[in-house]
């Protein structure tokens, strides 16, 4: 079970990318805009906890992961690791201790692996560059340990292989081994199984769950797939256009959602629950609006069947709707009550 101690904390985190205005904007003196990829997020991850960050494409999930792993710099807010403010720490030597403790696993294992390096060199690379081993004996030991923990057994059989000699599942295991080699305390995994066959997904997820159980490692699991999030996570945070609209335990988010967007996401995945148990909200339709043009008021209102005038004008704050459960919706009480309105108003 996760500790009560936060290993990671995001406070009002913001990442805005400037966009160049068009010719007309410049002629008319209109200010250049911004893509508000991450627009004020508060989130904590406890030691030994798996938190899933769920949202549609373009909601800002990867950008959050890149900020946590210091691959992107926030434009506002704070990133705290074990209470220490890491927001403005930069430069490879200043970041070395942090990189020993926080690692990222990317979605596309093929791209993440250098095709000209052997599996041994791929897994050894962070150990060498972060100067975590003193001699070759130690290096071989740590590489073997990481390969075994990622399920590549016996490890020695994989040392001399190149990425093209591995199956898709083995490649993702090699990527995981590279992240594990440094024995991190937090891993950010960005859609780590979305490119794998269904039959292999469960095995890879099991590797991640085992790490939490054996090493009390924390995991931020980024996915667009709510059932997958429910399967693996202790808590789920639902992201919509750069803002968290709901956070709660995996069971609450999946079976007792209190935000219309979460209900719609859930209804878009027929494998959850029985038909009788599903909320009578039609599946989510329409595209996520651009993060360069975020609607006023509640950003979900143009797609929300429950929207009222207030939703078009005022942004709802996240309010507590149960233990460890927050929802940012003016009508959250009615979402819970399975109102007639949900049934009547089509998306
Ligand atoms: N470097 C950048 N410059 C400008 N806009 C960017 C940049 N990186 C991301 N964005 C924009 O920020 C928004 C969030 O992108 P992000 O990749 O974080 O979303 P995501 O939820 O991970 O999507 P996906 O699941 O498709 O990867 C998108 O509108 C994206 O186009």
Automatic annotation (TrEMBL):
It comes from the Bacteria. Signal peptide: none annotated. It comes from Mesorhizobium cantuariense. Transmembrane segments: none annotated. Keywords: ATP-binding, Nucleotide-binding, Transport. The keyword ATP-binding applies. SUPFAM superfamilies: P-loop containing nucleoside triphosphate hydrolases (SSF52540). Belongs to the ABC transporter superfamily. CDD domains: ABC_NikE_OppD_transporters. GO terms for molecular function: ATP binding. Residues 8-266 form the ABC transporter domain. This is ABC transporter ATP-binding protein. PANTHER family: D,D-DIPEPTIDE TRANSPORT ATP-BINDING PROTEIN DDPF-RELATED (PTHR43776:SF7), TRANSPORT ATP-BINDING PROTEIN (PTHR43776). The keyword Transport applies. It is a peripheral membrane protein. It is found in: Cell inner membrane.
């Amino acid at each position: 079970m996760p500790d009560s101690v936060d290993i990671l904390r995001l406070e009002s985190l913001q990442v805005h990318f400037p966009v160049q205005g068009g010719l007309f904007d410049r002629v008319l003196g209109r200010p250049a805009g911004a893509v508000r990829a991450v627009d004020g997020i508060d989130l904590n991850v406890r030691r030994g906890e798996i938190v899933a960050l769920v949202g549609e494409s373009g909601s800002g999930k990867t950008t959050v992961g890149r900020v946590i792993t210091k691959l992107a710099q926030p434009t506002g807010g704070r990133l705290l690791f074990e209470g220490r403010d890491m927001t403005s720490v930069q430069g490879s030597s200043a970041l070395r201790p942090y990189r020993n403790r926080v690692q990222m696993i990317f979605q596309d294992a093929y791209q993440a692996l250098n095709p000209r390096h052997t599996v041994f060199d791929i897994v050894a690379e962070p150990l060498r560059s972060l100067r975590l081993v003193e001699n070759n004996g130690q290096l071989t030991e740590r590489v073997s340990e990481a390969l075994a923990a990622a399920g590549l057994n016996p490890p020695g059989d994989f040392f001399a292989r190149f990425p093209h000699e591995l199956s898709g599942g083995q490649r993702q295991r090699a990527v995981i081994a590279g992240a594990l080699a440094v024995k991190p305390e937090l891993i950010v995994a960005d859609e780590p199984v979305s490119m794998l066959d269904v039959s292999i997904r469960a095995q890879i997820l099991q590797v991640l769950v085992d790490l939490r159980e054996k090493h009390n490692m924390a995991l931020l699991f980024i996915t667009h797939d709510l059932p997958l999030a429910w399967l693996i996570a202790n808590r789920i945070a639902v992201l919509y256009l750069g803002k968290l609209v709901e956070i709660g335990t995996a069971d609450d988010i999946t079976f007792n959602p209190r935000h219309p967007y979460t209900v719609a996401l859930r209804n878009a995945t027929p494998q959850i629950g029985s038909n009788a148990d599903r909320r009578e909200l039609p599946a989510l339709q329409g595209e996520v609006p651009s993060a360069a043009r975020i609607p006023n008021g509640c950003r979900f209102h143009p797609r929300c069947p429950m929207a009222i005038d207030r939703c078009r004008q005022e942004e709802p704050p996240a309010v507590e709707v149960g233990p460890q459960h927050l929802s940012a919706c003016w009508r959250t009480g009615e979402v819970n009550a399975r109102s007639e309105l949900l049934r009547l108003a089509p998306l």
